[in-house]
# Entry
Amino acid sequence: MAPKIADSADVDERAEIGDGTSVWHLAQVREHAVLGERCVVGRSAYVGPGVEIGDDVKIQNLALVYEPAKLANGVFIGPAVVLTNDHFPRSIDPDGNQKRGGDWEMVGVTVQEGASIGARAVCVAPITIGRWAMIAAGAVVTKDVPDFALVVGVPAKQRGWVGKAGVPLKSAGDNRWHCPQTGATYLEDAGTLREENA
# Structure
């Protein structure tokens, strides 16, 4: 199925848009961005130049995904989320000259498979959000997030684990965690979590 692009969307002709992907009203997708299949880019969202997005990714309304972000398959970016790209942002240099593209070092946010970032969260590059992690709404993430971690707050701190279904896991003792929704079990070892039978 061909991509569906709203008439009011601004999609650069050099962007690659996968089959079945929808780009909604007033969204902007910049040059050389690559979007996989069956993605959704919500109203007024922004996808920067060269951003790489996998399949089945949802970028909700007003989200800002600045280059050089990389989003793996199945990632969820909530409404008004910001993925930053500059360590030390300034509009001008010490001499008062306006900074241009080559005047600063671009850094990115990497979001791995299945991870979700809640509404109005800010991810401060350079960081990696691990597989199936959950970032709470309004969090400010300044450090890498492990696979399956649940992080909340400003600055964001880990408050538990979530499974692939996204619900918090329950302790089953002996470093095992249980998903109350799917019944899947996970093993914790030295601050990391993995599926027991994976």
